[in-house]
Amino acid sequence: MYCIVDVETTGGVKGPTRLTEIAIFRHDGHQIVDSFHSLLNPGQPIPPFISRLTGITDEMVQYEPTFEDIANDVMTITQDAIFVAHNVGFDFNFIRKELNWLGCDYFRRTLCTVRLSRKLFPGLPSYSLGNLCQSLNIPLTDRHRAQGDAAATVRLFEKMLLNDPSGHIPRVGLLSAHCG
């Protein structure tokens, strides 16, 4: 199993920055078998440049759940799955940071579609999500929103699965989460 994830945030991974949106598509290697999406109230103002980039405003998230409210959903849907994201270090470390603040240890095997695309599709002019989607004719709507970017990453990942004769993509999930 794989979980293709994208998050939107109030800033970089370091410091007190928080999540504002999360989208997760659980994939069995053939198709999506489950999904989760939510806007999140970060409990802090969203910087104007982030609002301009994502379209997510303080008003949009004021009555949305906090990460604490959806943490169990995130742990459950990603259980026994490889955590896949475009620039996986950002998305994974953000979720792990949020879970650590709640007293949870979060471990998942990770797979970065940026690094993998460089191996499977060498010679492209750029490996940003937008440019990869353009080069590979993958539809990308709602750019810089978790659900739109995660959906495009699912399509990218499916193309990678079809173009992986050398077995770069691991076929087994791993690890768990523990709170306490």
Automatic annotation (TrEMBL):
MF GO annotations: 3'-5' exonuclease activity; DNA binding; DNA-directed DNA polymerase activity
Q: Which SUPFAM superfamilies match?
A: Ribonuclease H-like
Recorded superkingdom: Bacteria
Cite the Pfam families for this sequence.
RNase_T
- Which residue ranges does the record assign to the Exonuclease domain? 1-166
EC code(s) of this entry: 2.7.7.7
| A GO CC annotation given for this chain | cytosol
**Which terms are listed as keywords in the entry?**
Nucleotidyltransferase, Transferase
What processes in GO biological process is this protein linked to? DNA replication proofreading
NCBIfam families named in the record: dnaq
Subunit structure and binding partners: DNA polymerase III contains a core (composed of alpha, epsilon and theta chains) that associates with a tau subunit. This core dimerizes to form the POLIII' complex. PolIII' associates with the gamma complex (composed of gamma, delta, delta', psi and chi chains) and with the beta chain to form the complete DNA polymerase III complex.
Task: Explain the purpose of this protein.
Answer: DNA polymerase III is a complex, multichain enzyme responsible for most of the replicative synthesis in bacteria. The epsilon subunit contain the editing function and is a proofreading 3'-5' exonuclease.
Name of the protein this chain belongs to:
DNA polymerase III, epsilon subunit
